[in-house]
Structure formats: C-alpha cells, structure tokens
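Quick one: structure tokens for this chain, please?
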Amino acid sequence: TAPRALAVKKGDERAEIKRKYKENRPDMGVYQIKNKATGKIFIDSTNNLDGTFKSKSFQLKMGKAVFNRELQKDLNELGAGSFELSVLEILPKLQVGDNVERLLLARKLHWQEKMQPFAELGYNSQKRFQREREQL
C-alpha cells in the first residue's frame, strides 16, 4: 500500500502546483514601444508582460528588433536609449473557458484603432491590422 499512497501524494502535489500556477499567472496585456525621438509607436499584446518586457528590452539593448524592420532601422540610427516600453492595459484575470488569444487580439486591435500606430505615426502594419480585424 505504500507505493499507492506515494502516488496519491504525488498527484495531490501536482494538482496543488497547477492550482498555484493558475492563481499566479503572469500579467497579460497590451504594451507599446515608443521612439522618444520621433514619437512613433509599436503596439502589441502578450500573455506575459514581464517576460515580454525583459525580452524586448534585451533585444533593443542588443540592437536587434527582429520583430519589426522599420523599428530596426530607427534603432540602428538612434540607439536603444531612444526607445521606451510601457504598458497600455493589463487584462483582468481570466475565467475558465476564456479564449486568451482572442482576448489579447481584441485588446491589441482596440489600442491600435485608438492610437493609429501606422505609417508615419508608428511601426504597425495597416494591412495586418485590417486582416486581424477580419479574423476577429
């Protein structure tokens, strides 16, 4: 009976770890990268704001904005110090059954529509914005 008791205990531990993870999920939301010299912005969403901030900050410091060619061009000219990251919105904690990708896309599109980060105002693609709106 000892091995069975051990298996039950491991199952309980696993369930507890999953419960804690769900309670402590990273903040999800919409963020922007702003070119302080030109005012141009890039808006995107993520299911992990903290992790994305660390990743994007590191990419900027290394001079590699692989996620956007136009931003990369300005980064080459102006350097990482000309860019700042900020949070536009943190999503409320999700409920069971929520479609995370759909919620993030909807909020990203909301902010893109509001702030119009296209052409001379930003780094986002108007075509991609239209395509994603049709998907939603």
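The chain has five helices and three strands.
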